[in-house]
Design brief:
about 0% strand, 16 helices, mainly alpha, globular
């Protein structure tokens, strides 16, 4: 009798262990599939379809992360997903409706900020899997902290910096976020040191906005122009982002109306599907280019003939 009880107990323990193992395997398999699904969204030609589908995928990722909190692949996918959703379907909408509905626009900006911070936290957790303590070090000694990061972490570095930088940009009235700008600059600086051509110019595209900041925050408009030119070169001129970013961040600041219009028109000339994995972002950027063109007079003091035209960046073609 005692022997039977022992055998039954052992069998139950083995069954439970097998069940736990199967559960972990299922979670891992589903997590990998979700992490690899970004290409499906990137090649989509219908932004509204993506806007409706992404929230479910993101919440599913979060449920899986609860099961596997140190799954680097899942953490990075969540960071990328929340950052992309915030930019493409919350922040852009906030900018688009601002002239007609300022209150709703501000609500959407607050939501976008919260989503960027969530994206930053997941990306930081992914980075910390290989570099424990990196989050605290980035806040205390950013320049020294990034020195330990290697090329194997480039994706994590980029998405941490991109989502964090977007949060800082939207939260300019929050001193605690503005204080994190040093960490953002250090992360992008390290990524450029490790592989300046990474992402076919994505790093340089991000630097356009950062170098368009006031000089007191590290801005340098000549450097912004150089990063724009390099971003266009590395992307083969098939990414709308550098043109739209330069128009909005640099041409408006220098009150260079002719360059502003030229940049936005060049963004619209791009075939969104020329590079399939850029299709969705190109479509969204071209939508932004259209409504920025419609509002040209709102951004420039001079009239349509360009009385206040500044130095042109057209040499970056």
């Amino acid at each position: 009798m005692r022997r039977s009880v022992v055998l039954l107990s052992a069998s139950l323990l083995l069954f439970a262990a097998a069940g736990c193992s199967l559960r972990k395997k299922a979670v891992s398999t589903l997590g990998s599939a979700l992490a690899d699904s970004s290409a499906v969204y990137a090649t989509e030609s219908d932004p509204e379809l993506v806007a409706e589908a992404l929230p479910f995928a993101l919440k599913t990722m979060e449920a899986l992360i609860l099961e596997q909190p140190d799954n680097r692949e899942l953490l990075l996918a969540a960071g990328k997903g929340f950052a992309g959703y915030s930019w493409g379907f919350v922040q852009l909408e906030a900018e688009r409706i601002e002239p007609e509905d300022y209150r709703r626009s501000e609500e959407l900006r607050r939501r976008a900020l919260a989503l960027y911070l969530r994206a930053r936290d997941y990306s930081l957790r992914a980075l910390a899997v290989g570099e424990p303590g990196i989050r605290e070090e980035l806040r205390r000694r950013p320049e020294e902290a990034v020195g330990a990061l290697s090329g194997e972490s480039l994706e994590e570095i980029y998405w941490t910096a991109a989502s964090w930088g977007a949060a800082v940009s939207l939260g300019k009235d929050r001193p605690e976020l503005l204080a994190d700008l040093g960490a953002v600059l250090a992360l992008f600086g390290r990524a450029l040191e490790l592989e300046p051509t990474w992402g076919d110019g994505l790093l340089h595209e991000a630097m356009i906005s950062l170098k368009a900041l006031p000089p007191s925050l590290g801005g340098d408009l000549e450097a912004a122009k150089r990063h724009f030119e390099r971003a266009v070169e590395l992307s083969g001129g098939n990414r709308a982002g550098p043109y739209v970013t330069y128009a909005q961040e640099v041409a408006v600041q220098t009150q260079d109306r002719s360059t502003y219009v030229d940049m936005l028109n060049r963004a619209l000339e791009i075939d969104p599907g020329a590079v399939p994995e850029r299709r969705l972002t190109n479509i969204l950027m071209q939508e932004k280019a259209r409504w920025l063109l419609d509002r040209t007079d709102d951004y420039f003091i001079g009239g349509p003939d360009g009385e206040n035209a500044g130095p042109s960046a057209s040499g970056g073609r």
